[in-house]
């Protein structure tokens, strides 16, 4: 549906009216035959029809296009009253900026922000309503620190509330201690496995070093024996040389 033409100040060009609802175009689309419609209107029309409601030419939703720029500019420049005019708002602004104004309008009906309250009230009166709203929350006047609703005043018991809060804190603390305990045990197990693995690796390296040392000592003994043999052979050769 479009904007009610009665809200507009001055003359509105016929070409800026929806061909279906006959109100001023809202979120407009244009058919190939150049007739313009509100998006919601033409989509609803094409559910049951396949032609233009003005000249009966065949159209398809895929052929719909945005409004020509010059028409869009003319549309945006139209001046109209705020929808809250009947509530006292006297604002008149362009169609291009009307949505922004109405979102912030002091005369708009908005819901109370207190949980459980169903009252709809003008934005300008919200603060005064919140001051007396039966669903407003406040801190307990007896000093327990608990936030209560006015409607719960007669049922509020500081001792019971504090006892409940204490039990919740105790349960939360126990859970956190258990979580910390499990985490520490998990870390210790991980470190223990890492140390055992590291010890095994070091033990293997030590055994390998011992094996290498044993081979080296065997090689040294073999070299020393060969040296003695070589020295004996040299001494024998020297004796034979002297005898000759």
From TrEMBL:
<keyword id="KW-0862">Zinc</keyword>
<feature type="domain" description="TRAF-type">
    <location>
        <begin position="101"/>
        <end position="144"/>
    </location>
</feature>
<dbReference type="GO" id="GO:0043122">
    <property type="term" value="P:regulation of canonical NF-kappaB signal transduction"/>
</dbReference>
<feature type="zinc finger region" description="TRAF-type">
    <location>
        <begin position="101"/>
        <end position="144"/>
    </location>
</feature>
<keyword id="KW-0479">Metal-binding</keyword>
<dbReference type="InterPro" id="IPR001841">
    <property type="entry name" value="Znf_RING"/>
</dbReference>
<protein>
    <submittedName>
        <fullName>RNF41 ligase</fullName>
    </submittedName>
</protein>
<feature type="domain" description="RING-type">
    <location>
        <begin position="18"/>
        <end position="56"/>
    </location>
</feature>
<keyword id="KW-0436">Ligase</keyword>
<dbReference type="InterPro" id="IPR013083">
    <property type="entry name" value="Znf_RING/FYVE/PHD"/>
</dbReference>
<dbReference type="InterPro" id="IPR017907">
    <property type="entry name" value="Znf_RING_CS"/>
</dbReference>
<dbReference type="InterPro" id="IPR001293">
    <property type="entry name" value="Znf_TRAF"/>
</dbReference>
<dbReference type="Pfam" id="PF02176">
    <property type="entry name" value="zf-TRAF"/>
</dbReference>
<dbReference type="GO" id="GO:0016874">
    <property type="term" value="F:ligase activity"/>
</dbReference>
<keyword id="KW-0175">Coiled coil</keyword>
<keyword id="KW-0863">Zinc-finger</keyword>
<feature type="coiled-coil region">
    <location>
        <begin position="192"/>
        <end position="243"/>
    </location>
</feature>
<dbReference type="Pfam" id="PF13923">
    <property type="entry name" value="zf-C3HC4_2"/>
</dbReference>
<dbReference type="GO" id="GO:0008270">
    <property type="term" value="F:zinc ion binding"/>
</dbReference>
């Amino acid at each position: 549906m479009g904007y009610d033409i009665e809200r507009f100040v001055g003359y509105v060009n016929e070409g800026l009216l929806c061909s279906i609802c006959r109100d001023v175009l809202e979120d407009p689309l244009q058919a190939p035959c150049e007739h313009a419609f509100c998006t919601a209107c033409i989509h609803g029309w094409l559910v049951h029809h396949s032609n233009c409601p003005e000249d009966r030419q065949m159209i398809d939703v895929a052929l719909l296009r945005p409004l020509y720029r010059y028409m869009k500019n003319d549309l945006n420049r139209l001046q109209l009253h705020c929808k809250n005019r009947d509530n006292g708002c006297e604002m008149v602004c362009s169609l291009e900026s009307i949505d922004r104004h109405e979102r912030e309008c002091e005369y708009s009906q908005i819901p109370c922000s207190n949980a459980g309250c169903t009252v709809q009230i003008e934005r300008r009166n919200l603060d005064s309503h919140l001051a007396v709203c039966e669903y407003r929350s406040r801190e307990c006047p007896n000093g327990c620190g608990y936030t209560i609703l006015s409607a719960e005043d007669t049922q509020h018991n500081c001792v019971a509330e504090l006892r409940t809060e204490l039990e919740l804190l105790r349960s939360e603390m126990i859970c956190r201690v258990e979580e910390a305990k499990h985490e520490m045990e998990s870390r210790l197990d991980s470190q223990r496995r890492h140390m055992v693995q590291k010890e095994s690796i070091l033990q293997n390296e030590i055994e390998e070093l011992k094996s290498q040392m044993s081979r080296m000592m065997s090689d040294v003994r073999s070299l020393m024996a060969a040296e003695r043999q070589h020295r004996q052979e040299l001494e024998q050769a020297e004796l034979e040389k002297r005898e000759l």
